[in-house]
Amino acid sequence: MNHVTQLPLRRYPAPAAILEVLHPITWFPPMWAFTCGVVSSGQPIAAQWLLVLIGIVFAGPLMCATSQVVNDWYDRDVDAINEPYRPIPSGRIPGKWGFYLSLIWTAVSLTLAYFLGTWVFGAALIGMTIAWIYSAPPLRLKANGWWGNLAAGISYEGLAWFTGATLMIGGAMPEWPILALALLYSLGAHGIMTLNDFKAIEGDIQMGVRSLPVQLGVDGAARVACLVMGLPQVVVIALLYSWDKPVHALAVGIILLIQVALMVRFLGSPRERATWFSGLGVSVYVIGMMISAFAVRGMAQTV
C-alpha cells in the first residue's frame, strides 16, 4: 500500500515569497531618479544623509514595491499563462494575501510621506493613485500601452526625481529646470517600459492587454520605443546648451549616441534582444540622467 503525504496548503505567505513579490530588482529606477533629484537640488548631501537614506527607502522598498505587488495581484491571471512560477499564481502567496500586502504597503508608504512634507505627500498620493489605476480595473491603464507606459514612466522617474529635489530644499517647489528634466526623462521612460512588454505578448493577446507590441507589432513597437527614448534626450541636450552647460550637453550627447548604437542592433531582432537592450540601454540612459542632474546643481535658482 502506497502512502502519499499531502502537504498542507499554506495559509500565510513565506517571507521569501513576500520579498519576491515586491520585486527588489525594480526598485533601482525610482531610487536612482530620487537620487538625481537630490543631486539636482544643489543642497549638501552629507549634512542630510539620514534624510536622503529615508527618501531612498521611501522611493524603492515602499512606493515602488507597492506598485509591484499591486501589479502582481491584478496580473495574476496573465502571469498564470506567462510566468506561472511567480508567487501569487504559484500559490506561494495564498488566497487574498497579494491584495492584503498591497493595502499594507500603501498605508505604510503614505504614512511616511505624510511626515516628509506637503509636496512629498502630494507626490506620493499621485504616485499611489497611478500605481492602483495602472493595474486595477476599471481603468487598468496598463491595458493600453500608450497610457500605461506613460503613467509608469511618470511615476518611476518624474515623481521620484521631484520627491528627491523637494525633500532636499525643505519641502518647497523645485525650480523649473529641475521640473523640466524630471518630465523629459519621464517621457523617455515610456520607451523603456515598452521594452518590458515584449516578453508577455502571448499572454497579453489572450487577456486583451493592448500593449504596444500587440497594437503595433513587434517591429513597430520597437521603433516607437527607440524614438520615445531618444527624442526627450535631444531636448535635454538642447536645454543644457541653452543653460550654458556645454560640457554636460556634450556628455549627454555621447550617452545618446551609445544608445543609438545599441538601438540599431536591437531593431535587427527586437523580440529576442528586448531584454538585452533593456539591460544595456537603460543603464546608459540613467547615466545621462545623473549627468543632467549635476548640470543643474546649484544653478536652478539663477535660470
TrEMBL record:
Main location: membrane
Keyword Membrane: yes
Recorded topology in the membrane: Multi-pass membrane protein
Any one GO MF annotation of this record: transferase activity, transferring alkyl or aryl (other than methyl) groups
GO cellular component: membrane
Listed transmembrane segments: 49-70, 103-134, 146-170, 176-195, 216-241, 247-267, 274-296
InterPro entries tied to this protein: Chl_synth, Prenyltransferase_related, UbiA_prenyltransferase, UbiA_sf
This protein's record includes keyword Zinc: no
Biological process according to GO: chlorophyll biosynthetic process
UniProt KW keywords: Cell membrane, Chlorophyll biosynthesis, Membrane, Transmembrane, Transmembrane helix
Localization in the cell: Membrane
Recorded superkingdom: Bacteria
CDD domains per record: PT_UbiA_chlorophyll
The protein's name: Bacteriochlorophyll/chlorophyll a synthase
